[in-house]
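Input.
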Amino acid sequence: MLQSIHHVAIICSNYERSKHFYTEILGLEIVQEVYRAERNSYKLDLAVNGLYQIELFSFPNPPARPSRPEAQGLRHLAFAVTDLKAAITKLTHQGVATEPIRIDEWTQRRFTFLADPDDLPIELYEV
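Output.
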């Protein structure tokens, strides 16, 4: 029945700051940007390597995330990278802090976490 993940939706607290983070820092491609006047809301569709989409939304006064990282709901967003060290170096040069590299105990693959402007946990997983 299910074919694949179609998209992941993220609600941000500061649209311009989050748009900059996802497009300029993480390098996601803008597919479409729409302002929905009736909702006072932006919707930004982003492509990840041309395969999947992230929908970035702005809404007036969205509630804060209750806690990190064990809040109910979406735990984190994970992106595959081919060179974890290079990705960390690029992010560090752009002022983005990452956690120390960890090793997945089951696959022995390396990964790390960082946070988006709203403290949403983002994982980079080396494949």
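The chain has a mean pLDDT of 91.
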